[in-house]
Amino acid sequence: MNITDKFFLRLIWVVTAVVLTVVIILKLAPAPQPIPSFVYVLPHLIGGINALCSVLLILSLIFIKKKNIQAHKVTNVITFCLSAIFLIFYIIFHLYEKDTKFGDIDHNGVLSAAEAASVGAVRYIYYVILLTHILLAIVVLPLILVSFLRGFNMQIEKHRKIVRWAYPVWLYVAVTGVIVYLMISPYYNF
Q: Which domain holds residue 154?
């Protein structure tokens, strides 16, 4: 491993730690007031970006299986850029909007016993999907960054080794991001 690789690997861990720290702070910090109106569009854009990333990741796999390396690279760069935009939108949205309660039909921020009963076990399915989505999103960030480093440096064997783990996790996170959005969006309070 050369000095450049060491530098970028350290940078990847720093970026991962910073992103994780920012997300944790977002959960703990009070929301600034007033809330800009554009914030309410962000969840829909985030859901759309996740859907588009899911499709692009599948296309990327198809391109590499067909040995179309250039299309594979371009698709991955686009997916990576969209994921970065997703992260920015996610941070902005959660800066202002803290939690939406799954099943909160009357949008008052309180899940009553009747509301919980009306959604039943689906609520637990939602939380399992959400929890795995969040945990794997944390894990996948450094995997994605390392796979990009290896791919751009044309370290093909090292790239393949990391992508065996990064790709299915990234695809799972993108697809479950769409599922989480579709499941929680009826309960947004806006």
A: 36-187
Axis crossing angle, helix 122-152 with helix 69-96, rounded to the nearest 10: 130
Establish if 2 belongs to a structural domain: no
Please provide the size of the chain in residues: 190
Burial bucket for residue 45 (CB in 10 Å: 0-12, 13-18, 19+): middle
102 in Cβ contact with 187 (< 8 Å): yes
Residue 3 lies in a domain: no
CATH code: domain of residue 43:
1.20.120
From the first residue on, what is the mean pLDDT of each consecutive set of 10 residues in the chain (190 residues)? Answer: 79 92 90 92 96 98 96 96 94 89 88 92 96 94 92 90 96 97 90
Q: Which residue type occupies 38?
A: F
Q: Is residue 20 part of a domain?
A: no
Total count of domains within the chain:
1
Q: Is 79 left (phi over 0), alpha (psi -120 to 50) or beta?
A: alpha
Chain CA centroid to CA 96, Å = 18
In whole angstroms, give the CA distance from residue 23 to residue 40: 19
Give the pTM. 0.89
Other beta carbons within 10 angstroms of residue 140's beta carbon come to 23
